[in-house]
Amino acid sequence: MTKNLINKIKNKTAKVGIIGLGYVGLELAINIASKKYSTYGFDTNEKKINLIRKGISPLNTISNNKIKFLNTKNINHIRKIHLINNCDIIIICLPTPVKKNLEPDNSFLINCIKMIKKYLKEDQMIILESTVYPFATRDIFEKNLDKFNIGSNFNLCFSPERVSPGQHDLTKYSNITKLVSGYTKNCLKNISTFYKKIFLEIYQCNSLELAEFTKLYENSYRAVNIGLANQMKKICDKLNINIFDVVKAASTKPFGFTPFLPGPGVGGHCIPIDPLFISYVAKKNKISADFILLARKENLMITKWIANKIKKHLYYKAKILILGLSYKKNIDDTRESPSIKLMEILSKKFILKFHDPFIKKISLKNKEIKSLKKISYKDLKNYDGVVIATDHDDLDYSKILKYSNLIFDTRGVYQNTINKKIIFC
Is residue 334 part of a domain? Predict the structure, then answer.
């Protein structure tokens, strides 16, 4: 059976089905299709599916030009999940949020395997790309694949995603080393053979759990260091020292230092959510995860600290323009966005408007607020304060400085500028 799948992968007759066409799944689908594999996509979002079928990307981080690699006839609503039976490789890219008690919510994955299990057949391979806590791949999938002999006539694998939306300048997607792992050595062999066709380099992890934990460690590393940077920002502010100057000076050291910049908080899934999976599994095993929890606290509290600093400089009912609401620049993703949390706090005291070129509207306290479609830079003088919450590249920061009365810079846009109008926070 393994030889049959290997041959299909090598001669590119293997069919690939991807469940979940978000920032991870759609990027992966495009890259696999670009390597001449027949690629199917499944999603619950009807609007997204219709856009893709028209050759239009539903995500601003993926160009319409990339959609052309897909056979859009193979992009389907989850109602057609029975087509997964046609696929040799099934890649699951579904959300793994946390519950209110901050424990992992694997309901998307559990519902998925229950939905597809009756369509599974021998010699297929399931690859989980969603972020999970160690041993979750086994916990969720093993019991639902009991009709197979995993490693002999079926393959179960885990390969954590390393997508960074909006940062294509860092490196090409296919050039990022791909971590792979398998339930057995045969599973590892098969996923390695497949992903070698897609990625320039792969790295074999010797267990599912090693790969699962590595993904969490990578993101916890960032969360802890950003938490440190945010804490240092508050201390520097008291000492009247510019934290961005400190980071710039420290970055001249060629060893032992990696720069992390402070900001208004953290958003997305990787930094605010993923580390909680380690604290969850640590708690289950009666081990401390203090660094992670302290970093989370700092990254949440910095948003309130910024709001309080803005309040000290403006009067009640002052007019404020918030620039940027996505959780990082040049994307349309608002998951866990600190910019929105900042807006929620400030809305209690000030009159707010916002502009984000990638976000048309948001719901704030059950009220829909639309983004200003365009900025008339000369009109900035009509606002008492302008908050740079997300530093999108297409904003003209020289004009913002010229026409604004007061600027609250949470991203260090003006870190090399000395001007009384600018308040770093």
Answer: yes
